[in-house]
Write a structure and sequence with these properties.
The structure is a homodimer of 120-residue chains.
Chain A (H helix, E strand, L loop, with lengths): L6 H11 L2 H13 L4 E2 H8 L3 H13 L3 E6 L2 E6 L1 H11 L19 H9 L1
Antiparallel strand pairs in A: 1-3, 2-3
Chain A binds a DNA duplex (30 and 30 nucleotides) through helix 3 and helix 4.
Chain lengths: 120, 120
DNA sequence: AGCTTATTTCGATGATCATGGAAATGAAGT
DNA sequence: ACTTCATTTCCATGATCATCGAAATAAGCT
């Protein structure tokens, strides 16, 4: 079962993604998979000063979008996919109760397909 | 085909959703379907003063998440599902290139399913 | 034209957020 | 205990954002 989400925690998650650097960090972690990446590697890959990076990682972590685990002297960060799914599910909750919602062209995979994939 | 998205426009979209009132507005419009809702109905349903609502609707509109059309003397707002899909697709782009990304429990529909549904 | 209703713009105020260097903390290893 | 390396906290500054009443705009109706 997918975790329920309160509106305020969805706002926190969205706010944490609504920043150029944090979005880049999150996407990098999504691509890195469950192995994740140490803070230092992220700083180097994205060219962000350590103190700023730490601030942003803490932000994403507080919002629940990234996890943290220690390995040797490094802190490894990972994207939290379940949380991401919960967020998207929350956004699309009760999609189109009134009518069909796909103004999409044929062949497009749009909101209805998305909802099906996530909430069933 | 799903629209490509630049990082900066994804940030705009996320920032526009990262606010309690705007998130409520967007979700209400998602539920309203393609018929949408006039500004006045939104204000009444959510108890937001007109001037504030107008500010938030403009914000969402600038970010491309809601559309606007006139009908009589009312302005009807609608959620843009395609834009939403593009945003989610952008977040999950190249998900887990390094390894499997589902730490999810059996039965959960997680990121990999999401990606499949969106990008193929 | 004049009236009514729906919605937006203006504007000032208070609040929150991002930055990055320098110093502090934490964990290993010798 | 000491050194080293990785990361975080502190702090002051500048910048951006949210609020909502009142006035302005825009559209339709008679």
């Amino acid at each position: 079962m997918i975790m329920e989400m309160k509106s305020s925690s969805a706002v926190d998650a969205l706010a944490s993604l609504a920043h150029e650097n944090r979005l880049a960090i999150f996407r990098l972690l999504v691509q890195a998979g469950k192995a994740g990446l140490p803070a230092g590697a992220i700083a180097e890959r994205l060219g962000i000063p350590n103190s700023s990076l730490s601030f942003h990682l803490a932000h994403l972590n507080r919002a629940g979008l990234v996890g943290q685990k220690r390995q040797g002297r490094s802190l490894i960060y990972t994207a939290d996919y379940a949380r991401m799914d919960a967020l998207v599910g929350f956004l699309m909750e009760n999609c189109c109760e009134a009518a069909a919602c796909a103004p999409a062209a044929d062949g497009d995979v749009s909101a209805p397909a998305l909802r099906k994939g996530l909430t069933t």
